[in-house]
């Protein structure tokens, strides 16, 4: 049986062993919208965070040019880490 070739990927994916970065106020993010093309996803700035009892941030308030939204962090792509 022939060996299967490994698929080529542009980015490496690694197992999550723990939280890497909590989003903070004033972080710049892209808001993921599954109903729009990626080129149309809006850019926003976090204005308020809502940490849970365990200290992890799971929901944030994001300000965009179209208004303010409450969004879960798994629907955001941070642009820069400090």
Your description of this structure?
With 82 residues, the chain is an all-beta fold. The chain has a domain at 28-78: Roll (SH3 type barrels), CATH 2.30.30. The protein contains no helices and five strands. It has strands at residues 28-31, 43-51, 57-64, 67-72, 76-78. Strands 4-3-2-1-5 form a five-stranded antiparallel beta sheet, with no helix packed on it. A hairpin with a 5-residue loop joins strand 2 and strand 3 (57-64).
CATH architecture of the domain at 28-78: Roll
Computed Rg: 16 Å
| Major sheet details | 5 strands, antiparallel
Stretches where pLDDT is under 50 for at least 5 consecutive residues are: none
* Alpha carbon gap, first and last residue: 49 Å
Helical content band: under 10%
CATH topology of the domain at 28-78: SH3 type barrels
What does the average pLDDT come to?
85
Order of helices and strands: EEEEE
Order of strands, main sheet, comes to: 4-3-2-1-5
State the name of the first-level CATH class of the domain at 28-78.
Mainly Beta
Structural class: mainly beta
Number of strands: 5
Helical stretch tally: 0
Shape: flat
Beta content:
35-45%
Structural topology:
Elements lengths: L27 E4 L11 E9 L5 E8 L2 E6 L3 E3 L4
Antiparallel strand pairs: 1-2, 1-5, 2-3, 3-4
In short:
This protein is mainly β and 82 residues long. The chain has strands at residues 28-31, 43-51, 57-64, 67-72, 76-78.
Features of the shown structure:
mainly beta; SH3 type barrels; 5-stranded antiparallel beta sheet; flat
């Amino acid at each position: 049986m022939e060996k299967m070739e490994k698929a080529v990927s542009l980015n490496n994916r690694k197992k999550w062993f723990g939280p890497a970065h909590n989003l903070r106020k004033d972080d710049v993010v892209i808001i993921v919208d599954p109903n729009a093309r990626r080129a149309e996803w809006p850019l926003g700035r976090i204005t308020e965070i809502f940490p849970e009892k365990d200290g992890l941030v799971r929901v944030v308030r994001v300000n965009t040019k179209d208004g303010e939204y409450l969004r879960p962090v798994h629907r955001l792509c941070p642009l820069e880490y400090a």
